[in-house]
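DATA CLASS: polypeptide
GOAL: derive structure tokens

***
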Amino acid sequence: MTSRDHARRRLTERPERGRPTVHAEPAPTLPERLIAAREQKGVDLARAERDTKIRARYLAALERGDYRELPGAVYTKGFLRNYALYLGLEPDDILGQWHRERGEALGGEPVIVVPRPLEAPRQGFTFTPGVVVAALLTVAVLAFAVYLGVQLLRFAKPPTVSVTDPATAVSEVDETTSSYTLRGLSVPGATVTIATPGRDPIRVTAAPDGTWSANVDLRRGKNQFDITAIDPDTGKQAENPANIFITVPFSVVQAPTLTVDQPADGATFENGAIPVQGTTANAASVVVSATYLGPVGGATPTKPSPGPSVSPPAVPQPLSIAVADDGTFGAPFELTTGRWTITVTATSAEGKAVSIPRTVTVSYRGVNLVITVRGGKAWLKAWVDGAVDPRLGSAGKVIRDGKTLTFSGTSSVEVRTGSSGNTYFTLNGTPLGALGKPGIPETWLFAPPDPPTQTQRR
């Protein structure tokens, strides 16, 4: 019989003879209070288990009053306290009722005092051979670990490179200076590379203390040096190269210097894009101009000859080429078929100029057709030596305004355009312009020396 049954029996026993019978509602037991509080909270045991971190089986045992299912009195009190707090009940009241229903007096569990064991007297540290060997091994292992750490850091970290002379990244020297000794720091044994646009790189090796030096040539104007380093042990390159700019001023009265690397004098080209390249100093501008000498294989005309006159090709306008910071310049110069004299002229800011001529021959081989779309887009399809050009494909492509395409064939190039007036042709260096009207689709065959002819190919 549980405590709940005892309480009900006492309250319902028949009174002594002669006294009125009093019927009292029995007080709810602890399990009933727990169940009622949980149901009022609107949660089930699974939810209560998640919220309180107490297993559902223990919560169910508390609500049944079956305390034998619980691990012990200490755990039961802890479970009751936490569960009461979770359900909004007074923990001390719940624990008091638990004690009363178990027939125990309020108070804590008896404390069992365990006597402390007798301590043996502490002995002093004694150096034994085993202790010494263990200490030496520990020191060796720590030293090896430090060595490995240093090596790993070295292999993981790229080398550094810096410049100590000149002290600033941008500097200017006297106009008579023709060389300079660069100095700096890097990792010991590093390969330091000094690159200058338009010149071969210089490589030096850093000393054991990391210092390095290299003598570099200076030209008039701005000299740029890009400096980097490579660690010979790891092969890693410096992430932050050093950039140095040294300027050698020009004399006010000094004329520019000029060197033309291309084209070579007397060179022959199979298309009209003549490469013009070289270097200059003290020049504010470089201009390329051309003079027509005559047809390929003919003599330079000195006076009019009898017979029908042949109009010479149009002479292109002079081409201005920008000069880079290191004094280099380069650009293609378009010429038509024939023999030409190309003149490269460098002019200083003070107006002093120097010129170098080059004689070249332009002799087109096969068919070189340049197509430029102007005034709007145009659909194009092309056949080179009778085969469909793969860039445009068998279905053709729409080419946007301003786009230029080049086709080279052995015997012929045939072009179908959806807007003849927007398609401009240049055949073997000779501008032909548009051969039709805008919006009109036409097909043209180019097979020199015959003139362009219109076909029905689609």
The helical segments are 3-12, 30-41, 45-52, 56-64, 73-87, 91-101, 129-156.
